[in-house]
């Protein structure tokens, strides 16, 4: 691809950027929290059909996925869960195939009064777009779509097959991405534009979600000493798991990527529910937790370590010793992933990056996870993860930086053209 062709594509991204932002704003305005992603999938389907893509829109059947590597249990109403894939099939099949994937699910916004502007009424100011999902990762998904648009606007068409995939459940199980693989979608490479601050994810953690279900013995609080407080017992277990977190971080120091990162293993008690009455010693407490594991660490082995930790802590508790808590696996059961055997797609992206940013792309050792793991671990498909800069993901006043978004879109467009090949339309 010569410099003139590259410049035509870059100019097309510039020309289409205002339209890209308008589409991104519409996408962010949809409150697509878990179980409510349908309107986002409708929008993606409409956008793909309007562009002439072959659209596959299907309901996800958990029974088809439950025995696949990386499946995480589903606990909520899944009857409306869907995946949407738009396929471009070239007239001249001379290039390599590609999966472009984004997730449309977002985490809850939290107390609305703590946002400067409403989370689902996106606002552009100071070179940023604010809104829940603006950074993670709706801007990246729409950016990938407009990268494809720019190639067409430049008078070109790809010569490789492209699957544009919009998935759900990235924030809790990953079964949306898993469903596309179960459906049979494959390619020579996968590209996921998660917000990485303009760096390429080299290695990422896996994640285990679990719930502690703790029992107590209720009494009137006037006689609290004769009962057992389930909430306080849950804290006892949380403290024990914090010690396990310390042990795992010590173990992580031997990892070739994560050994240079301070505290890569993070344990988080994320939800706590318990008790029925302020003047009653609580008889129950549930704590939903998340902890990370590193690439190459066995999910099953680390589940056993969690269980052993909880069991040992219970033995040292007056009530739990005879009334052991339950541990439920409540979402992610995900392995870590390291990008390997990807020299060819990385070289193609390196050319695109150098044209837009100058120099070589930096690696990112990521203490969160992405859907790339399914493609690399399950099917040996090299899966690149690179995207824009932003901030406050999963927090208040989430935003994406618009200059970085434009650069990311340009890099994606040039990568698609380089990887898939292009010819005159």
Automatic annotation (TrEMBL):
Belongs to the peptidase M20A family. It comes from Bradyrhizobium niftali. Its cofactor is Zn(2+); Co(2+). Residues 204-316 form the Peptidase M20 dimerisation domain. Transmembrane segments: none annotated. This is ArgE/DapE family deacylase. Keywords: Cobalt, Hydrolase, Metal-binding, Zinc. The lineage of its organism: Bacteria, Pseudomonadati, Pseudomonadota, Alphaproteobacteria, Hyphomicrobiales. InterPro entries: ArgE/DapE, Bact_exopeptidase_dim_dom, Peptidase_M20, Peptidase_M20_dimer, Peptidase_M20A, YodQ-like. One of its GO terms (molecular function) is metal ion binding. The keyword Hydrolase applies.
């Amino acid at each position: 691809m010569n410099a003139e062709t590259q410049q035509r594509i870059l100019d097309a991204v510039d020309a289409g950027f205002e339209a890209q932002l308008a589409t991104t704003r519409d996408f962010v305005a949809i409150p697509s929290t878990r179980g409510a992603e349908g309107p986002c999938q409708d929008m993606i389907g409409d956008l793909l059909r309007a562009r002439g893509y072959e659209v596959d829109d299907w309901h996800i059947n958990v029974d088809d996925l439950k025995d696949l590597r990386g499946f995480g249990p589903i606990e909520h109403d899944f009857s409306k869960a869907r995946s949407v894939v738009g396929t471009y099939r070239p007239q001249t099949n001379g290039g390599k195939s590609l999966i472009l994937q984004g997730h449309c699910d977002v985490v809850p916004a939290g107390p609305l009064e703590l946002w400067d502007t409403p989370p689902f009424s996106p606002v552009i100011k100071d070179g940023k777009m604010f809104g829940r999902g603006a950074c993670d990762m709706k801007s990246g998904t729409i950016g990938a779509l407009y990268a494809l648009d720019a190639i067409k606007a430049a008078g070109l068409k790809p010569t490789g097959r492209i699957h544009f995939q919009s998935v759900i459940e990235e924030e809790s199980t990953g079964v949306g991405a898993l469903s596309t693989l179960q459906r049979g979608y494959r390619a020579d490479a996968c590209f996921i534009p998660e917000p990485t601050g303009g760096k390429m994810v080299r290695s990422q953690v896996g994640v285990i979600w679990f719930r502690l279900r703790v029992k107590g013995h209720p009494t009137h609080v006037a006689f609290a000493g004769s009962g057992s407080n389930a909430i306080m017992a849950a804290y006892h277990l949380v403290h024990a798991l914090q010690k396990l977190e310390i042990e795992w971080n010590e173990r992580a120091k031997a990892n070739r990527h994560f050994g240079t990162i301070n505290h890569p293993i993070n344990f988080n008690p994320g939800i706590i529910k318990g008790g029925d009455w302020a003047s009653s010693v609580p008889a129950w407490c549930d704590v939903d937790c998340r902890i990370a594991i590193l690439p190459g660490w066995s999910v099953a082995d680390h589940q056993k370590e969690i269980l052993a930790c909880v069991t040992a802590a219970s033995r040292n508790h007056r009530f739990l010793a005879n009334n052991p808590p339950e541990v439920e696996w409540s979402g992610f059961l995900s392995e870590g992933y390291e990008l390997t055997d990807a020299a060819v797609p990385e070289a193609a992206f390196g050319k695109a990056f150098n044209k837009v940013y100058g120099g070589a792309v930096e690696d990112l050792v990521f203490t969160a996870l992405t859907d790339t793991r399914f493609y690399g671990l399950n099917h040996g498909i090299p899966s690149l993860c690179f995207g824009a800069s932003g901030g406050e993901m999963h927090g208040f006043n989430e935003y994406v930086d618009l200059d970085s978004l434009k650069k990311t879109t340009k890099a994606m467009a040039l990568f698609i053209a380089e990887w898939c090949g292009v010819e005159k339309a």
